[in-house]
Design a protein that fits this description.
Elements lengths: L8 H14 L4 H4 L2 H4 L8 H14 L4 E8 L5 E7 L7 H6 L4 E5 L8 H15 L11 E5 L4 H4 L37 H13 L3 E8 L8 E6 L6 H20 L4 E2 L15 E2 L8 H4 L6 E8 L4 H37 L6 E3 L2 E3 L4 E14 L6 E18 L2 E3 L2 E3 L4 E4 L4 H11 L4 E2 L4 E16 L10 E14 L4 E4 L5 H8 L25 H14 L1 H13 L1 H4 L2 H9 L15 E3 L5
Parallel strand pairs: 3-4, 3-5, 5-9, 6-7, 8-13
Antiparallel strand pairs: 1-2, 2-4, 6-9, 10-15, 11-14, 12-13, 16-20, 16-21, 17-20, 18-19
Length: 594
């Protein structure tokens, strides 16, 4: 392992001044509050707006400053488009087959390293003092701050588990949404604006810049890329190469990068080790592999000072730009070929979720000496680290990731009744997913409906949703659809994303997020005294039912002790029972409606 070169605040500030002095433009036009303060502070959002305009003014042939949308509080969301290809509109990037790289900062606006690092890297790339000629071969879209309202909730201690800057923004939006849980459900105006940009430009690579929480140790950054464990097999190999190359670049610059997220398997227990894995698509690096594109999660370590974190993030951005310049044309071709493979997945078995096996390797992890003893404050076992005493921890890393839930994609696609069309269409359009509204009724359609075994609505709200855990299986059925039903074909480039949105086993399906909860609420009922009479009539008329009831009483103690469940046993067999109760209103079909 390469020995780490110490990075001090003074050396980092000198590094920034050297970059600035190489510029042909005045420092005050393009430098940040972070640079001017020796990386003690970060600027307010007004600075982002000014820098966006100033970069376009100073580099008129290479930069465009654009507003991509408005936040919940009405603030402009700014994007800087930088390139030497003279491509500043999406269709030209597609026509000329030029890769697009999207760098995203401040999705959690307290973790703001990416904003200040991005401005440093952008200036260098434009001046060709780093990532030399990289902008000749790609279009860079830099979003300094995704969560702009959260950025302006500005105060000290907004990130109590982080060293610097002096003040920073807040994790969530003005509506208290965590944007890095919103990629699939797309509830927020900020995410809807971001997805419009993504649909227009179709970036090959999306880099999401974060700062981790957690323990204290020497490692300073982690780089996770998908596809590498998940997604298209060809792209997995390229993703692994991409990750290895970025980690090699960072190691050569004195960092101690890791290819997995730096969180212990058991909270606050260093000896519990680590586990790699595949994120669900609510998260950025879990989402883009479903679109056959590269999603990169960058996590600097919160206990490194701000100057160090900004420098390492800057180094990561430069490495990504270099890698895309070198390999982007091939990777773009692979991603388009992956789109074609995805469009042929209808009727095939695909993974919906992944898991990490119990297989492990022992690794040397660069930690610090520590003690663990009960706290006299909380009473809990507490770990305390001594940052003056580096220590090698020999710990387990579980990094074998395999498919977990497998599903068979329907040969046709998914049918949604028109009663649910409005909000479903909004979600489909947000993701650029193909669909068709049916202009005529569909009668006696051979479908699969979901046979619900259990439906559990969460007692607590999560991201404003009462989530639903739906268990059961698909069964053959016939169904009639009135005019206006939606058909979402499985045969399309985003087939994996379609499955993630409509398969109940997906953690980020619309039904899992609670969009169909109304269908799992009982709206009509039979009075208990009526059910008593109905039960006696059924028992008298049907000896087999009587035998089944008595067996259930004997075998199921919980049922036997539950008066409501005993009456429902009979109510379900009565013609008054609501046949739509607990019916998931999305159907699979093996045909394509004409």
């Amino acid at each position: 392992m390469i020995k780490r070169r110490p990075v001090t605040l003074a050396s980092t500030f000198a590094f920034a001044l050297t970059i600035s002095s190489n510029s042909t433009f005045a420092l005050e036009n393009l430098s940040t509050t972070a640079e001017q303060s020796g990386f003690q502070k970060t600027g307010r959002y007004e600075e982002v707006e000014n820098l966006c305009r100033n970069f376009q003014k100073n580099y008129p042939k290479m930069v465009r400053c654009q507003e991509i949308g408005r936040s919940a509080e009405g603030r402009p969301m700014m994007a800087i488009i930088a390139t030497r290809t003279n491509i500043f509109v999406p269709y030209l990037a597609k026509d000329k087959q030029v890769p697009v790289t999207l760098i995203q900062g401040g999705i959690h606006a307290g973790e703001i390293d990416g904003k200040d690092a991005g401005f440093l890297a952008l200036r260098e790339a434009l001046n060709n003092t780093a990532a030399k000629n990289a902008l000749d071969k790609q279009v860079l879209i830099f979003i300094p701050v995704f969560n702009v309202d959260g950025h302006e909730r500005f105060a000290k201690w907004n990130r109590p588990n982080q060293r610097g800057p002096e003040e920073m923004g807040w994790r969530t939006t003005a509506q208290n949404f965590n944007l890095n849980r919103d990629y699939v459900k797309a509830d927020t105006p900020e995410m809807q604006a971001m997805l419009r940009l993504i649909n227009q430009w179709d970036p090959l690579v999306v880099v999401d810049l974060h700062v981790t929480d957690g323990a204290k140790f020497e490692h300073d950054i982690s780089i996770q890329i998908e596809p590498s464990h998940a997604g298209d097999k060809v792209l997995q190999q390229s993703g692994k190469t991409f990750q290895q190359n970025v980690i090699a670049d960072l190691s050569a610059q004195g960092s101690l990068p890791l290819p997995f997220y730096m969180a212990f398997e058991k909270e606050d227990d260093p000896m519990s080790g680590f586990a790699d894995g595949v994120a669900s698509p609510r998260l950025s690096h879990g989402y883009f592999q479903l679109r056959n594109r590269f999603g990169i999660l960058v996590e600097t370590h919160s206990w490194k000072d701000y100057a160090t974190r900004v420098k390492i993030t800057r180094n990561t951005i430069i490495s990504v730009l270099d890698q895309v310049a070198k390999n982007g044309a091939d990777w773009r071709k692979q991603s388009l070929e992956a789109d074609m493979r995805s469009a042929n997945l209808a009727g095939q078995t695909i993974p919906l979720t992944y898991k990490t096996t119990d297989q492990f390797q022992m690794i040397d992890f660069r930690g610090y000496a520590y003690t663990r003893k009960p706290s006299d404050i909380s009473g809990a076992l507490m770990t305390r680290y001594d940052e003056t005493k580096p220590q090698i921890w020999k710990v387990k890393l579980r990094d074998e990731v395999v498919p977990d839930t497998m599903i068979n994609l329907p040969k046709g696609g998914y049918l949604i009744p028109p009663a649910y069309a409005k909000f479903v269409v909004e979600k489909l359009r947000a993701h650029g997913i193909q669909f068709e509204a049916q202009n005529a009724a569909l009668n006696d359609v051979a479908v699969e409906r979901f046979n619900t075994a259990s439906a559990t609505i969460s007692p607590d709200s999560f991201e404003s949703h009462q989530t639903l855990k739906l268990q059961g299986n698909w069964v053959d059925a016939q169904h009639n659809f009135v005019k206006g039903a939606l058909f979402v074909p499985a045969a399309q480039p985003k087939a994996a994303l379609v499955a993630a949105m409509f398969e109940p086993a997906s953690p980020d399906s619309l039904v899992s997020w609670g969009y169909f909860n109304n269908n799992f609420e009982k709206k009509e009922f039979m009075e208990a005294y009526v059910a008593e009479d109905v039960a006696r009539e059924q028992l008298a008329a049907n000896p087999a039912l009587k035998q089944a009831f008595e067996k259930k009483l004997k075998d199921d103690k919980d049922f036997a002790k539950n008066p409501a469940a005993r009456l429902e046993f009979f109510a379900r067999r009565h013609s008054s029972w609501d046949q739509e109760y607990q019916q998931y209103p999305v159907y699979r079909t093996n045909i394509v409606p004409k």
